[in-house]
Amino acid sequence: QVQLQASGPRLVKPSETLSLTCSVLGGSIRGYYWSWIRQPPGKGLEWIGNVHDTGSTKVNPSLKSRFTISIDTSTNQFSLKVTSVTAADTALYYCAGGYASNWPLDYWGQGTRVTVSS
Amino acid sequence: DIVMTQSPDSLAVSLGERATINCKSSQSVLNSANNRNYLAWYQQRPGQPPKLLIYWASTRESGVPDRFSGSGSGTDFTLTISSLQAEDVAVYYCQQYDNAPQTFGQGTRLEIK
Known about the structure:
The complex is a heterodimer. Chain A is mainly beta. Chain A contains no helices and 11 strands. In chain A, the strands form 2 sheets. In chain A, strands 2, 4, 5, 6, 9, 10 and 11 form a 7-stranded mixed β-sheet that branches. Chain A has a 4-stranded antiparallel β-sheet with strand order 1-3-8-7, with no helix packed on it. Chain B is an all-beta fold. In chain B, the strands form 3 sheets. In chain B, strands 2, 6, 7, 8, 11, 12 and 13 form a 7-stranded mixed β-sheet that branches. Chain B has a 4-stranded antiparallel β-sheet with strand order 1-3-10-9, with no helix packed on it. In chain B, strands 4-5 form a two-stranded antiparallel sheet. At the A-B interface, β5 and β9 of A face β7 and β12 of B.
């Protein structure tokens, strides 16, 4: 049974770069599409983007160019980098997985809470 | 982007009664090539990540109780819980995965009356 475990800093200062990693446990990272989703406090879900083991990525255009998703098949991990963070990036960040890019998300990690504050 | 709009925003239902949540997409998520609706429903219990309940608009995920059912096609969809149980208290989200970016509804909070 595949499990996802996100890790990263809980507190980031404004204008700095946030880096999060998701470890795929109990299975191979290959063959699936791996997504990042975030949920601001008390709000709904926003799909950030996804990555495939080929390195192909899609990022939500509304988030512009600050978000980068990458994958490392040798460590069974995929990552999210957010540059120039602001308070609006404060959220619970989830990693998730689906069989294809246009497929429901059937694997979810517990999420990691990130606060942007000086 | 495809906008997903759920109704109502919140709902209180008595134990054992039926709960119905609606979801409308701003454009059709029915793929004419395979006749599939690219629409999923998720349940998010307090303090938990979302859990996939229904996909292709009406297919239950393995292990999901059969009191949960999904229906609809094109732009209008419904999640029905036939007999509400205490453990069904959660926020429910619809999601379209037809076009990138995948988008979610704003969520419907379901409580016990």
